[in-house]
What we know:
Elements: H1 5-22, E1 26-29, H2 37-50, E2 55-58, E3 76-77, H3 80-91, H4 96-106, E4 120-122, H5 131-134, H6 141-150, E5 154-156, H7 188-201, H8 204-208, E6 210-216, E7 220-227, E8 230-237, E9 243-255, E10 262-271, E11 275-279
Parallel strand pairs: 1-2, 2-3, 4-5
Antiparallel strand pairs: 6-7, 7-8, 8-11, 9-10
Amino acid sequence: TLQNPAVVDYLMECVKYWIDEFDIDGLRLDVAYSLDHNFMRRLRSYTQELKPDFALIGEVLFGDYNIIVNDEMLHSCTNYECYKGLYSSFNSMNMFEIAHSLHRQFGSDQWCIYRGKHLMTFVDNHDVTRLASILTNKKHIPLAYGLLMGMPGIPCLYYGSEWAEQGEKAPDNDYALRPCFEEPKPNELTEEIKKMIHVRTGSNALCHGSYRNVVLTNHQLIFERRTDDERMLVAINASDAPFTAHNGELGGTMTDLLTGNEIQMSGQLEMPPYSVQYLK
């Protein structure tokens, strides 16, 4: 159908209507991996003429994201590779999994494949079991959000999950994932996520910086986000016990932006159990 010029012209007019009438700023394209590539090129050039900062984000479940996320097609897509790593690293108590995915995608090595791109990151959405249901240890919920807000990408929150709402995907329908809430149910997790969002939106390094693993064990991960003007360390301890991380780069005085506490480091960092630290 998308090979038919009349169909494509009609769809472009539909997009123009939504921009003209409702001033929308972007589109999320369902099953984008199945769309005709020429259609996506036409959509990109057309919307850019109408609104230069118009965003195109595609649902992509697998494969090489570079094929459709580039200067001619989509601006971003769903990062399902890191979605899987975000929860299974905690369930298997193996932080090497998410650290490997993040380095493979955004590290400094020549072969890292998505460096400089801003993929859409998430811990759950309307198609998958909610984080509060899929994590074995519920104390890992805020840690997963700590990773989400600290790693490269565009972090997305699914409604209700900021309250640790549960919901399991069923084989025949997704209704359990998409409930109607009578009213908001904010709690301690909501406040923790708000703090993380505040730190991220105020940090050039977290929004745009490079990625590099600094300390990595089965239960702990410390990585660096860096720009020319800012360096941030994100430290996660998934263990129920405190941990002392040792590395020559852990030096000087840094501030934990989540607590406001100053931390003196001389080659080591004290990591409380079940903790997230954003150190600047």
